[in-house]
Every structure is written in C-alpha cells, then in structure tokens.
Amino acid sequence: MKFLSWITSVFTMHTLSANSAATSKPNFLLIMVDDLGIGDVGCYGNKTLRTPNIDRIAKEGVKLTQHIVASSLCTPSRAAFMTGRYPVRSGMASYSKIGVFLFSSSSGGLPSDELTFARLLKEEGYSTGIMGKWHLGLNCERSDDFCHHPLNHGFDYFYGLAVTNLRDCITGHGSVFISGAREPLKTLFQILAITLVTFIFLNYIGLVKIPWKRLCYFLLTIIIFVGLISLFFWNYHYFNCFLMRNYEVIQQPLIYENLTQRITSEAMKFIWRNKGKPFLLFVSYIQVHTALYASHSFRGKSKHGIYGDATEEVDWSVGKILDEIDKSNLQDNTLVYFTSDNGAHLEEISSSGQAHGGRNGIYKGGKSTSWEGGIRVPGLLRWSGVIEAGTIINEPTSNMDIFPTIVKLSGSTLPQDRIIDGHDLMPLVQGKSVTSEHEFLFHYCNAYLNAVRWNQKNSKSIWKAFFFTPNFHPEGSDGCFDSHVCFCFGKYVTHHDPPLLFDLSNDPEENHPLTPQTEPNFYEILKVIQQATDKHTKTHQAVHNQFAWSNIICKPWLQACCSSWFDFCYCDNDKELGMD
Question: What is the pTM of this model?
C-alpha cells in the first residue's frame, strides 16, 4: 500500500513538474549576424561555405524564405528589430548620405521613449543580455550619461561594441573615411590651388594686392584643421573601436584576436547563470562586417578567403551556444531566432581587390538598397515541441515581427500608445494561419520610401513597386562601386513614373519589370499600392531626427575613454582568454 502511495506521489509530482514546464515563461535566444547575405548560408542554397549549425536551426525548426528587414542598413534595421516599428517612426532613419552612427561620441541614438522588447520583458521578470554589436547610440550630453546605452533600454547585461566595426578599426585594412573623403578633398585642394595661383597672378600684374600675412594665417589655419582631422581619423580605432562590459570600457582599442570566442563564452555563461529563470539573450555578432577578422583556428580554412573564414567561425559559435541550450535541457522552453541585419555588402572590396562582402544568392543588389538582395535575409526559428521541424514558409515576414512575437509569449501586452508595425509570428510558424498578416510591407532607403510590397490576398502574386532605384556603376553591376554604399537621393537614384513594377512570385531576381502590355492589371495594381502608401504615410508623426548633422558629428566631450586623453584612451581589462 505504501509502495502504491509512493508511485502515485511520484506520478503526481512528475505531472505537476511537466505542467509547470509547459506553462512557464519561454526563454528567447535571438541571433543576428552583421551583413550576412542570404546566399551565404547552406540551408538557403550555398554549397561551398560550411554552416552546419545554422542549417541545424532550419532542420529542427522553420525556415522563412521571404524574411524582410525594415531597412537595408545596420542602425535603422536594428532600431526596427528592437521596437517592432519602422525606423522613421523613431527618427532612426537619415535624410542625408550618412545612414548609420560612425562615432561613439555622436549624440544621436535610440530615443529613451521608444520601447524595446528587452524593456518589456524585463518588466515581466526576465533576465536580459546582449553580447556583441549595439550600434544604437551611447551618450547624449555627457561622456557618462549613457542615455542610449543598452542598459538604459531594458538590458541587464552588455558585453560588446557600442558603435560598429569598420575597416578603420584594424590597422592595414584601409579606411572608409579616407576613401569617402578622397574626392571632396581633391576638389577642395584643386579649388584652393586655382584660387591661390589666380591671386598670385593678379598680384603680379598689379590688379590686386595680396595681404600676404593674412593669407599665410589663413593657409596655416587650413593646414592645422586638416592635420587635426587627419590625426583623428588616423587614430580612429582608439576612439571608436572599443569593448564595453555594461557601462565600463574594458578594452580600448579593441583586440580582435579571439573576440568571437569571448562573445561566445559570455553568451554561454549568461545562459548558465540564468537557466533557472526566464531569460532573453541577444547575440549580435561583430562578424561578418568589415574589417573582416577570424581567429587563428579558422583563418585560411574556408574556400572563400577571410569572409568565408569569418562566416564559418560564426557558425561554430552558433553551434556552441545551441549546445549550451540543449545541455541545460532548455530546448523545449527556448525560442531560437537567427537572422542578419541586412543583405551582404557588395561594395566591400579590399585594397588588394579581394571581395570582402558576401553573396545574396539569386537576388539583385545588396546592403543599402531595397532590391531583394538588400532586404531579404535568413530567417530561422526553432522551438522543440512547439514548432514543427523542417517547416518552410514562403509568406512575407519582417524582422519587426520578433517584437510582438516575444512580447506576447512573455506574458506582456503590446503597447497601445504607438503603432507597432510587426505581427505575431506564432500563428504562421505553428500552421494555425497559412497567410502572412503583412498585406503590405514598406521598404525604406534611409528615410525615403523606396518601394512597396503587396502580398495580394487570394492570389499567388506578390507585387513590388519601386518609386526610385539606385544608379549602379558600372552599368550592369549589382553594386554602387563608385562609393562605399548606394545612396538614396539626388544624382544617385533614378525616379520612376509610373513606378517600376515586379511580380516577385515569378521574378524574384527583379530582372523583368512589368508594363501595361505584359500585365493587364498594371494600373489597377499600382493604384492599390499607392492607396496603401498614402494610408501608411499618414500615420507618420513628427519626431526628433536622430541623424541630423548635429546628432551624428563627433563631439569630443561625449568621447568614451577608459584612461586619460594623455594616455590616448588605452586599456586592456578584458581577461577572458576565449575558448577552444
């Protein structure tokens, strides 16, 4: 009798434990690679890069084939991902050439009144951590106010970079700034030289009298100014490429050796520390954005140079973190999401002519364009026992959908005081819905509405209309090779009236624009798209422009520095040795 009672007790406890696990708050592991092209991943068709661990997420979960970022540049794309809103709604989209934050001492950033999923989950009792790249601002008025810092946007723990990874961060990799400033400086010096020669000639023939003393002061001022600017950019890596743990700068300049191993170790330790309570972990890789790097054990091992080495190192890291989830028996209670912040950067060519950008498969264009190659990215989800393994979904989805998805799953509620542009993915990935809630998706080039996607109901067609397209150079290429990225206005684009129309269901490469002769409903389709566009733009509200020149310029008084300026902002207090 006692034995029967013991068996009953054990069974009851097991049942209660199982029910508790089933009803407990799920964990969230969000993984984002920087500038990874959809054509770089095995499960999306790549045959030569080895990505078995990323492919494993697809095999054990859902693959989204039409997963779209809200912007094709790092900063606005990440702002949309964090808030579930188009970046123009938060002022995180630029009207000028510069569409991302380039300096740690800029005052722009994700506004404090924007709600991130981290902030809402923290209110639900979640531990929240971000490892890797932030790129949504740092300070506002002082070098220690941290108004845009991850810890002031809902994260408990931060280990990573406040800004981004550029060629200027690693000596010998060239300079984004020098290449971008070469033509303007050349023009400036030509104007100065012509002006000076003209005045000397006029002075010689007696038409003008040059105040030589003032002229010398003027030229000396220009030389000093150019010299100071050059000194700053020459030492860019000291001021902008540094590693933080929470609010503290722990390594300045950044040391790239074993950096991915250190990020991986931090992520695994975060999981281990929080496996007894609900957590949100955002692993935001520094790779495969340039300056490219790979740890010693991965260098020279791929078939695609340093870019391939970096991609395969990221895949290794993903595998280690997934193994930690599984080893901790959290796979049944953890939603894993994998993506990239935008398409591969086609214009990334090293000084030696080596391609340092990835591939976007069959899709045209890349980073900084609204062609499919710039906005269609990997989208993978895994949740054992909840999402059926091996599922493929061809409906349009957005990186903004992660916000409402995890907010609802956490037990929180969506804010009612603002427009949320994303939609809950769970009905779609669980097969409870067969169509996307996104009838229209609006594609922005910086702050300019570039194109619109119409997922027509009760039709197999997915229409996409371009109001303007970037001017590729040379003609016939898929990149703007006369600049670091494609730009969004003026001489850099061609406007289309009527808009350029494609049927993505039949022409995903966007090679064959439709005409009234090839599409009988041409004008009716454009009319519907224009009506949706008008309705969408009416929902915009005036917001502070975080990319105004006053917000993106370098402000020395906002500079993060782990030592005195006389020590040139140098320190190395990151003692993590990495992993085997």
Answer: 0.89
